Amino acid sequence: MLSKMNIRTLSIVFFVLLVVFTIHKITEPKRVGNLPENLVSFVPEECDKIVISQRGNDDPAIVMSKEANGKWIVKSENSEKEFMADSSTIKRTLKTMSQLKPMRMATQSRDRWEQFEVTDSAGMEVAFYNDDNVLADLIIGRFTYIQSPMAAQMRQRNPYMRQNPGTMSTYIRRKGEDEVFAVEGFLSSLIRADVNHFRDKSLFSLQNDFKYPVELSFKVPGDSSFVLTQTDGQWVIGEVPADSAAVADYLKDIRNLKVRSFANNKPENITHKLTIKDRNGLISVIEAEFDKDSTLIMSSQHPDNWALDKNNYLFDKIFVSKGLLLNN
User: Fold this and answer.
1) Cα separation, 175 vs 171, whole angstroms
2) Are 144 and 279 found together in one domain?
3) 29 in a structural domain
4) 35: Cβ–Cβ under 8 A, 6 or more apart, which residues?
5) Pair (134, 237) in one structural domain
6) How far is it, in rounded angstroms, from Cα 60 to Cα 246?
7) Contacts for 296-301: CB closer than 8 Å, 24+ residues apart
8) What is the pLDDT of residues 201-212, one digit of tens each?
9) Which domain does 252 fall in, by range?
């Protein structure tokens, strides 16, 4: 009897899985025709310009250009204001977009473009150039997520079981062509019509030539200003020894500060100032216009990167109290 019950249970599970799989196959976009091996194929190093435009609105396109020294700049189209681009973001974008492989064909009909958000008014266009020659021109459409039918069934039986998360894909159309393809991944996380997404977010770092600070001068409101100095390997504030471990932790916290949100306005009413001198005499300055909710911060190392420090996350790292650094 036990054997018969096991067979019956397995038959029910198999039938349920078959139904789920059949529904999935019926509702997913059909694969039509033969798939190309690659949707685009170019060498990332060949690309020297990227243009991203959000279709269906009047916002200016985002233009990224490679300079003669190999560095990238980013700006809004027709704007004279340029910013250094984040090289790692550019490299990641080029690597991904130069090797796009179709998972399946969604449609060959223009009538279904709207369904996949790849119309000229709904999609986001991204074009890659080499000396004004087009390497690839794509319309990026809707993102979709398909959960594994097996995973869905297993989750019903055991909600705590680790499972296959499913497949993330994005619909893409090559400009000038009718076919719409699904490619793996969430491409909208890479391709955005937003200058700040591609900007270098560096604010301050203790790296390269500026590595070994020996004097930190904290200028803050009231009588709380102080100078932290290293003398013969010992950190002191005035004549009082500082806590070497606390100083080490502080320097670690500010070693590589990044802008989380860019400000539109430069700090003007400076309330706090930190001047850091290294052992070679190099000086870096961090200034802040304090606000209890959102402080503006800038650094002499990257004077165009103004940070809008929401909830004072960076401010609290940079402008610490004297008592935090002293021996208790």
Assistant:
1) 13
2) no
3) no
4) 102, 104, 105, 181
5) no
6) 48
7) 296/263, 296/265, 296/266, 296/267, 297/203, 297/267, 298/203, 298/266, 298/267, 299/203, 299/204, 299/257, 301/202, 301/203, 301/204, 301/205, 301/210
8) 999 999 988 989
9) 202-325
Task: Compute the distance between CA of residue 100 and CA of residue 172 in angstroms, rounded to an integer.
Answer: 10
**∠199-84-174 over CA atoms, to 5°?**
60
Measured CA to CA, the distance from residue 192 to residue 197 in angstroms comes to 7
Amino acid at 67: E
* 3 state DSSP class of 140: strand
Same domain, 179 and 313: no
CA 208 – CA 126 distance, rounded (Å): 35
139 and 214 both lie in a single domain: no
* Domain count across the chain: 2
Domain boundary at 147, 165, 198, which? 198
* Same-domain status, 189 and 232: no
Supply 221's token pair: 């409101």
Q: pLDDT tens for residues 254-299?
A: 999 999 999 999 999 999 999 999 999 999 999 999 999 899 999 9
- CA pair distance 206, 286, nearest whole angstrom: 13
Looking at the predicted structure, is the pLDDT value of residue 163 above 70? no
**221 occurs within a structural domain:** yes
